[in-house]
Amino acid sequence: MWIKVNANIPKEGAMNEALVDGNDILIARSEGKLYCALNSCPHEDIKLTLGCIKDNRITCSLHGYSFSLNSGQSSDSDVENLQMFGVKQEGNDIYIEVQQ
Ligand code: FES
Question: Which residues in 23-58 are b (16+ Cβ under 10 Å) and which e?
Answer without folding.
Answer: eebbbbbbeeebbbbbbbbbbeeebbbebebeeebb
